[in-house]
Write a structure and sequence with these properties.
This protein is α+β, with helices and mostly antiparallel strands. Helices cover 51% and strands 15% of the residues. The protein contains 6 helices and 2 strands. It has a two-stranded antiparallel sheet. The longest helix has 16 residues. The radius of gyration is 14 Å and the shape is globular. The N and C termini lie far apart (33 Å).
Length: 103
């Protein structure tokens, strides 16, 4: 339990120190389509599901679907990547009906 609390506190500190939102851009066909802002703090409701492997709340799935184009960026960022790669992250995405991205 202490480890989970420590991990959560570290995650919150990292997130709060990197609040600058980014935008994911997807190129389809001839045009460029801009997607939702990549704001990792919007995914805080997903943290218990990632840490414990529990069922994600509906709000978590909504935010993940909205930021689906951001997932590769999160995976490639060392600050967040270790939260997205574990098997619980795979379970979380599957529970929300989102395929794990191929980056």
């Amino acid at each position: 339990m202490k480890f989970t609390k420590l991990l959560f506190m570290v995650f919150v500190m990292i997130v709060m120190s990197s609040l600058a939102p980014t935008r994911a851009t997807v190129v389809r066909g001839w045009g460029i389509e801009e997607k939702a802002a990549c704001i990792v703090t919007d995914l805080m409701s997903c943290l218990p599901a990632i840490l414990k492997g529990s069922q994600p709340p509906a709000y978590c799935c909504e935010m993940l679907k909205e930021q689906q184009s951001c997932l590769c960026g999160y995976i490639k960022t060392p600050t967040f990547g270790h939260y997205v790669i574990p098997k619980n992250a795979h379970k979380l995405l599957a529970a929300c009906g989102i395929p794990y991205p191929n980056c």
